[in-house]
TrEMBL record:
Domain Transposase IS30-like HTH: 3-44
Domain of life of the organism encoding this protein: Bacteria
Pfam families, A to Z: HTH_38
Name under which the protein is recorded: IS30 family transposase
């Protein structure tokens, strides 16, 4: 596996695109020549959840 410290913006865009296609972390890792743990940590550290309310109501903190 590649021992680079950081992922590039291009790699992150590829990860996002492949996750949208429901690819596994193993498949993405093989494609980018990275360990699947690196991919999963990247996703875990940069995930954003969309806040939404119940049906018919808006979200309130």
């Amino acid at each position: 596996m590649n021992k680079q410290k950081h992922l590039t913006l291009a790699s992150r865009i590829i990860i996002e695109a492949m996750l949208n296609k429901d690819e596994s972390f193993n498949t993405i890792g093989r494609f980018l020549n990275k360990d699947c743990i690196t991919i999963s940590k990247e996703v875990k550290n940069h995930i954003c959840f969309e806040k939404s309310g119940v049906y018919g109501r808006t979200f309130t903190d």
